[in-house]
Amino acid sequence: MGAMAERYSILRRPLISGDKNFDQVTREICAPLENKSSAAWWMTFAAALAMLAAGMIAVGYQLKTGIGTWGLNNTVGWAFDITNFVFWIGIGHAGTLISAILFLFNQKWRTSVNRSAEAMTLFAVMCAGLFPIIHMGRPWLAFWVIPYPNMRGPLWVNFRSPLVWDMFAIGTYFTVSLVFWYVGLIPDLATIRDRATSRIKRALTGFFSFGWDGSNITWLRYETIYLLLAGLATPLVVSVHTIVSWDFATSVIPGWHTTILPPYFVAGAVFSGFAMVLTLMLIVRKVLHFEDYITLHHIGAMSKIIIATGGMVALAYATEFFVALYSGNDYERFTFVNRALGPYAWAYWIMVGCNVAVPQFLWSKKVRSNVTMVFILSLLINVGMWFERFVIITISLTRDYLPASWADYSPTTIEIATLVGSFGLFFALFLLFARFLPMIAIGEVKGVLGYGKQPEGGRR
Amino acid sequence: MPFPTPVPTIAARDPAPAPQRGFDRRSFLKAAGFTFAGTVLAGCEKGAVEKAIPFLVKPEEVTPGTATWYASTCGGCSAGCGILIKNRDGRPIKIEGNPAHPLSKGGLCATGQAMVLSLYDSRRLREPRISGQTAAWDAVDRTIAAKLAETRDGAKGVRILTGSGAGATTLAAIRSFSAAFPDTRHVVYEPLSIAALADAHEQCYGRRIVPHYRFDRASVIVSFDADFLGTWISPVEFTSDYRAGRSPEGPSRAMSHHVQIESRMSLTGSNADARIVVRPDSMVGLLGGLAYYVAKETGAGPAVFASPAAPSPRTASGSPDAEDAMNLLPLLARRLAAAGRKGLVVCGVNGIACQALAASINDMLGNAGVTVELERPTSSRTDNDRETQDLLAELDAGTIGMLVVHGVNPVYDHPRGGVFSAAMKKAGLTVVFAQHEDETAEHADIILPKGHPLEEWDDAEPVAGVVSVRQPAIAPFGNSRSLAECLLAWTGERTGAREAIRRAWKSAVFPRQNAEADFETFWNASVHEGYAVVDPVPSGHHSFDASVVPQLPAGDRKNPGAGADSSSGEGFMIEMYPTVALLDGRHAHNPWLQELPDPVTKVVWDNYASVSPRTGKRLAVEEGDVIRIETGVHILELPAVIQPGQHDDVISVALGYGRKGTDRFTSVGPEWFEAVPTVEPGETVGRNMAPMREIRGNYVSSYRGGVSVTRTGRVRTIASTQIHHSLHVPEHLAPKNAERRPIVQETSLAAYTESPGAGRFETHKVVSMWPDEHRFTKHRWFMSIDLTACTGCSACVVGCQAENNIPVVGKDEVYRNRELTWLRIDRYYTEEEDGVSVAHQPMLCQHCEHAPCETVCPVLATVHSEEGLNQQVYNRCVGTRYCSNNCPYKVRRFNWFDYSRGDDMGRLVLNPDVVVRERGIMEKCSFCVQRIQEGKIRAKQEGRTVKDGEISPACEQSCPAQAIVFGDLNDPASRISASRKHPRFYRVLEEIGVEPSVGYLTLVRNLPEGDGRNG
Q: Most buried of A10, A402, B46, B948 (most Cβ within 10 A)?
């Protein structure tokens, strides 16, 4: 087989372009951490902080004055709040999928994006987690949904409530994602420690890298635990959004009470998550000059996942409609006709346009290799997925059983500012992450440098 | 849940326990322990309790935590319904109907129940004022005495202007005042005048009386624009009677057939079996036509109807719609004639010709003594438009030395209010008794504080032979004196109000009965019961004088549609009507009533111009578009509301708005930066329509013709509690065969007689996966609401609000669909080819056995009780609103803000048995759990089980139609058990398997074959 060993793969294209050595990789990825921040970074960070400030003012005002500062009413008890919540949770799905499932499937291309995607997951879940708390009438009592030993006699939480399941699901997801992300970060923290020039930085990274020594046994243990965590995180990818969908599926409201919701939500979540990863990565590769690491190949791979999950989402839309019409349930039938033709039809058609039509452009390789086009399409998908949640949650509520209690909904300034604020929080956290931690897993990328270039296709 | 009634312990029932000698060690330790614990607890108090001073000497009757009830007479309008006033800790907190009262029979309208809130209105006048300066009564009496002497010497007159419904005491006081000052006249002014009704009877029967109508005895009711279920004469009594005469049950199926002829959709019209929609000026022609046909049918009519000059169908033609209506008259006449003595024609038009024709039809039917009681007239109504006009002339001529105005506000609500205010200045002295510094009072020389009906002694005789006492339930907040007391004082007699009424009763009421020989016994019994039944004073009317009919003003009778009066002519007509809540505007200061959704339009906090859907389309006007209404004299801009069932040529607008001082409501509702104030500062709630009314032939008419309407292009927010008004889903969204939702199930009497299941939608078998977790071994509370009986009057809505401390939230919040009322009445229109039918459906928490709200609450803030109640635990609620989202009936209510419950004084009305909810928590109907507890505890104290009907939620208690039945399903003999098994029983959304504990009885309409339902 010696001859084979000399052959370069023709099946696999290199994952990292440019002829980079290990040192170069370390330097390039650590550059944003070690150089002064660029003006672009400062400007975007300032913009993110401004958005965050707007959101904080809005939330502060709402906490002080009352939830009535939102556009909700007796009939529509949830709208922007839970839409945003489900939207952010959905965004958070790509990270774990990329880092855990693709890891288990041995998809090497994940190494360029997994760190950022996981960070994105954490920040998105943070944003998501805010909404169930601030949407409460008395958020200062939010801890009551946690079952903890208390002095209130036999009073306990209601384990039949999907909101309690949510709390567990999201709590678990966040914890596992955080640990997974952190474990993956340890070798890189050690790299930063070794390169650190200031004492504080060295002390901090030294502490957080647990005295990493880069020995074979350390690597062995590291890879074992990483594999285990990947296994642990995998079911969570499915469980979180399934449970979130139960908030609606277990109810009695037409448009919510649908058994298809769990797979539909999971597919939608992956779909929106990848769209968001693309949006962020396309900016990152441009601003931080990571074009060699996040190549058109990566973009293409993610685009293909978007086509696949977008197809699932489209199928779900069609199935949902078909089942409603086929069900013989008049309320259900009305609900769906109302979505498509009722007063909020514009929202429905934005959803269909962005989630069903837009991904179809990605079939074309030309489009997939046009970074600007992919960027625009990914943004549109994000918009579409936000509207999907709005359509399911809000439109269903506005027209339910009794025509006398039908109501309309429109958001207030406070709600819009809160949504803007959640984006501000997300971007601010992401920008800080870009400034202080390696955006790309240095250790893992080094492992795939030879992919498609070296003997055996670089698969060692 | 605080227990309203303390359970007496054995010790308390026993004779006084043996006195303890000395203070032993155990007692010391106990006392010390309590003191310590008390100190600690007091330290835990959040805010300092200020001025919470215990009684030094506990007043008799007042036991903390226990309600005291006083029987009295409602002062909300002149109907004089019997009420019971619930006092807690010395203050009235609720008014309920007196079940023993022979007229109102336990029900009470929304307005009457809301009167308790106006008692605590901090803007009420407290002290007498002379020329704007606060003065003592002595000074007032001196000034007035001097003026009276001067008036008498100057041979000028004294006029006393009051509203209708003055009782024996006031009348006696006026009489003795007249004796002292000879040129004194008592003028009765009623803004919602039925003077023509009385005058017509004077002409036809020789006595100026308003008959007592008996809707319970009628089998055919034809109402010409009389909103007798809403605002006409005595709506509570009429609603109760109407219901009694409309039961589709029993072998006789004695359900009356009700035809309403009107131009707008009134509450009464919304309940009618058939509506004929005509212009208001067609009424007289139609009445003439009906009289003609009835005369022909019965053959008993006066000969005059046979003569060619008589009113006949021809006289009514003129407008095409009247032509259509005219074609229905023979059928109507046949039905009335067939009903004979059980036929009844009522007419709400304030015109002598209409009223005389209506009286003549009643006479031809021979219904005197059956459905029209002439010998027992409605003695409370002595409205006199002519005398009011004369007074205006006298004032203008300057012949009046002193004018006393009591409890009426002519400057605001008289069509010539502006003239009135100018003329008032020409009187030597004007003395106005008013609760607020209103439009009339501000022009007065002396303003005297008028007591609230809950703080005054008074009496009334709503119907001849039923006399009732009004007793104070609290000491007056202000320094007020009753009219009788004042009049007596000004004649030099110092008598307290209670003494005055006792004296009047001793001389005028006591002799009219034989049951009691002793006045004290009679008086005490009357005060205790709130009323007494005595012999009516003979009305002394003669038989019907048919010669009156041809003498009716020709223009008023003939050719009504073609230029006989100013009402005709091109363009639109405008019709002014009183609302169920505010009436003529006398309750405009009451926020509960301002926020009570109109029973028909469901709009709050505003008046508006109702236009028909067709007219709306023609003028390109949608709900909220401001239209300009020009009469040639007045120009007014009002937002439009599209009203099905409205005549295409008629714009109708509510009276009672635009009251001075209603700018106070600018602060109602939460304050935040996107909030829109309920009233713009400096503006009033709505616009005053009174000046638009016309005086036609001495009578204040409710309509005016020759009105032009144009679009202004501006929009004004209309706050309505409903945005979709039909059981049919919008056409373009409707799935096939599911256009109409089976929420209200209805049928016709004929179909129901044939098959008891008529009108019921087929239900499929509900398969339940629920464990049988609720066993309900003790009680199982259940409610049923009879949609045939419910008129939509909204009494229950206010009853619930008063009982359960529900705050008003303001126009903006209602606009945002955040009203807080636990009980709402859904109103659905069904537009059919031949007209609009209306269904009213009270909707409240359905207390589902498998409650969708309970499973989804993460913190168990809503749970099921072992008696079938769906309970909301306020202090556990964190406010996720998931329960409300998952409620199929959307009956849960959320505290979006910390809603204000009024100022310090306004909060005195709060029911101490019900928690006041803070912001961020969910609330909803509790089936009045505090009343259930009270009933259970009372039964326990008395060592018995709860009796059926003993426990009654506020809504059931208040319902004049007794449409609501509440009780224990575990008691097989209870009314609710019978109702549950009734063939008409159904539950809304039964098919989704939530097992509601509230059911409805199908709506049955009495639609004889061959009937059309016009426009």
A: A402
Cβ atoms of residues B656 and B580 within 8 Å: no
Phi and psi at B501, nearest 5°, equal -70, -40
The SS3 call for residue B1 is: coil
Q: Which two tokens stand for residue B844?
A: 């409240």
Mean of pLDDT values over B37-45? 51
Torsion of the alpha carbons at B258, B259, B264 and B266, rounded to the nearest 10: -10
Q: Which amino acid is at B536?
A: P
Point out which residues pair with B703 in neighbouring strands: B575
**What does the alpha-carbon distance between residue B917 and residue B899 come to, in Å, rounded to a whole number?**
9
Concatenated DSSP letters of B249-309: -TTTT-B-EEEEEESS--HHHHH-SEEEE--GGGHHHHHHHHHHHHHHHHS-S-GGGGSTT
Higher pLDDT, B117 or B555: B117
Q: Which residues of B touch A338 (CB under 8 A)?
A: 733
pLDDT score at A27: 82
Backbone φ and ψ for A371, nearest 5 degrees, come out as: -60, -40
Do A253 and B885 count as a contact with CB atoms less than 8 A apart?
Answer: yes
The predicted model gives B943-955 an average pLDDT of 92
Residue B1014 φ then ψ, to 5°? -65, 155
Q: Dump pLDDT digits (tens) for B749-804.
A: 888 888 888 888 877 777 778 777 778 888 999 999 999 999 999 999 999 999 99
Query: Are A120 and A277 within 8 A, CB to CB?
Result: yes
Separation in Å, CA of A158 to nearest CA in chain B: 5
Amino acid at site B79: A
Which helix (H) or strand (E) covers residue B637, if one does? Answer: strand B635-642
* A412: confidence class by pLDDT, cuts 50, 70, 90: very high
Which two three-digit tokens encode residue B617?
């389309």
Closest CA to B107 of B860, B799, B909: B799
b/e burial code for range B75-109 (CB count within 10 A of at least 16 → b): bbbbbbbbbbbbbbbebbbbbbbbeebebbbbbbb
pLDDT tens profile B691-741: 888 888 888 888 888 888 989 989 999 999 998 988 888 888 888 877 888
Task: Nearest by CB to B860, from A137, A158, A250: name it.
Answer: A158
Per-residue pLDDT of B277-303, as tens digits, reads 888 888 888 888 888 888 888 877 666
- Reduced 3-state DSSP string for B35-91: HHHHHHHHHHCCCCCCCCCCCCCCCCCCCCCCEEEEEEECCCCCCCCEEEEEEECCE
Which residues in chain B are contacts of A325 at CB distance < 8 A?
Answer: 735
Confidence of residue B61 (pLDDT cuts 50, 70, 90): confident
Chain B residue with the nearest C-alpha to that of A164: B858
- How many inter-chain contacts (A to B, CB under 8 Å) are there? 196
Helix, coil or strand: residue B27: helix
What would the two tokens of residue B843 be? 């909707």
What is the rounded CA–CA span in Å between residue A347 and residue A345? 5
Query: Which residue bears the tokens 């009183």?
Result: B578
Query: Residue A452: which pLDDT band, with cuts at 50, 70 and 90?
Result: low
CB A356 within 8 A of CB A312: no
Tokens 């991904």 label which residue?
A359
Cα separation, B522 vs B432, in Å, equals 34
Cβ-count burial A364-387 (b if 16+ within 10 Å, e if not): eeeebebeeebbbbbbbbbbbbbb
Could you tell me which residues come within 8 angstroms of residue A56 by beta carbon, excluding any fewer than 6 positions away? Answer: A421
DSSP class of residue A17 equals: -
* Residue among B827, B920, B988 whose CB faces A67 most closely: B920
How far is the CA of B827 from the CAs of A405, B237, B357, B721, in angstroms? 11, 23, 34, 10
CB A358 within 8 A of CB A342: no
Rounded CA-CA distance B615/B611 in Å is 6
The interface predicted TM-score (ipTM) is 0.91
When the pLDDT of each residue in chain A is averaged and rounded to a whole number, the result is 87
